[in-house]
Amino acid sequence: MSTLAFLGLGAMGDPMAAHLATHARAHGHRVLVWNRTHAKAGAHARAHGTQAATLTEVAAADVIFTCLPTSAEVDEVMSQMRPHLRPGATWVDCTSGHPDAATRQAAELAALGVTFLDAPVSGGTVGAQQGRLTVMVGGDAAALEVVRPHLAFAGKVVHVGGTGAGFAVKAVNNALLGVTLWATGEGLAVLGRAGVNLGAALDVINASSGRSNASENLIPQRVLTREFPATFALGLLAKDAGIAVDLTQGVQGSAPVLAQVAALLRAAQHVVGAHEDHTAALKLIEAMNAKEIR
Ligand code: NDP
C-alpha cells in the first residue's frame, strides 16, 4: 500500500484528487488531502473518502501531488514540509510553475532523497472533472514510470524533457492560448464595429484557417453569451504568459508577439480583475474599441 497526498484543492486540484481517490480505492492505497482553507479538505474527505491531513502528515507520503497557483506557494509548503519528507518519495508538481523554480526545487529535494517532477496539466476544469487531463512532465523518465500508474486524472501523459521542461511547455502553450484569444477578440471587435454579425463571422472563421480553441469554444461559449464563467483566472493566464517571457529571456530568444500578449494580459488583469475568467480579458479590447463582442 502506498500513501498518496494531494495538496491544493482548488478548481483543478479538487477534481484531480477525487480521481486519485477512486484509483486508490481500487488499488489499496490511501489518499491524504491538504488545503490552506482546511474546511475544503474536510469536505473532500467526506465526499470522496480521502483523509484530511496536516502538512506534517502529508510530508510523509510516498507520492506528493501539488496543484497551487504558482511556484511561490509550492515553495511555501515545501519549506514547512522539508523536515518531514521521506527519502525515496516523489513530488509531482501539477502547478503551472516556473522552470527556474523547478530546477532549484528539484536540487533541494534531491539532497533529501526526494525526486521532483514538474507535471503541469492542461484540459481545464472540465478535463479535470472527467479525468482526461494532458500532463506534460519534466524530470527523470524513470521517476515518471514509478508514478505513472497514479496519474489517475490524466487522459494523456507526455515526458517532454528534463527538469523544468514541463513548466516551459505549459507556459508556451498558455501564451499561445493568450495569443489566439486576444487576436480573435481584436478581430471580432473590428468586425463588430464594421456592423458584421459576430455569430456569422465565427461560423465562417471556424470553417476556415483562422479558427482556434478560442474561436471554436471559448468566445462563443463565454464571451458572446456574456457569461464569462470563472473556471480559469485571468491572473493565472497572465502569470503563465509572463513565465513564457522569462523563458524567452533565459534562453536569449526572441518572441516579441508572446511578450506583447503577456503585457496585454497583465494590463487586462489590472483593468478587468485577476479573479475574473481569462476570457474576460476581452473586456479590455471592448473598451479599446467602444464595442461589445456579442
Ligand atoms: P484555484 O485558485 O482554484 O486554487 C488554488 C489553490 O491553491 C487552492 O487550493 C488554494 O487554497 C491554494 N492556495 C492559494 N494560495 C495558497 C498559499 N499561499 N498556500 C497554500 N495554498 C494556497 O486555482 P486552479 O485550481 O485554477 O489552478 C491551480 C494551478 O493549475 C495553477 O497553477 C493554474 O495556472 C493551473 N491550471 C489551471 C487550470 C484551470 O482551468 N483552472 C487549467 C490548467 C492549469 P484555498 O482554498 O485556501 O484558497
UniProtKB/TrEMBL annotation:
UniProt domain 3-hydroxyisobutyrate dehydrogenase-like NAD-binding: residue ranges: 164-285
Top-level lineage group: Bacteria
Keyword terms, alphabetized: NAD, Oxidoreductase
Domain named 6-phosphogluconate dehydrogenase NADP-binding: residues: 4-161
Similarity section: Belongs to the HIBADH-related family.
Pfam families in alphabetical order: NAD_binding_11, NAD_binding_2
E.C. code: 1.1.1.31
Catalytic EC class: oxidoreductase
Protein name: 3-hydroxyisobutyrate dehydrogenase
InterPro entries recorded: 3-OH-isobutyrate_DH-rel_CS, 6-PGluconate_DH-like_C_sf, 6PGD_dom2, 6PGDH_NADP-bd, HIBADH-like_NADP-bd, HIBADH-related, NAD(P)-bd_dom_sf
GO terms of molecular function: 3-hydroxyisobutyrate dehydrogenase activity; NAD binding; NADP binding
Residues at the catalytic site: 170
UniProt-listed PANTHER family: 3-HYDROXYISOBUTYRATE DEHYDROGENASE-LIKE 1, MITOCHONDRIAL-RELATED
Gene Ontology terms: biological process: organic acid catabolic process
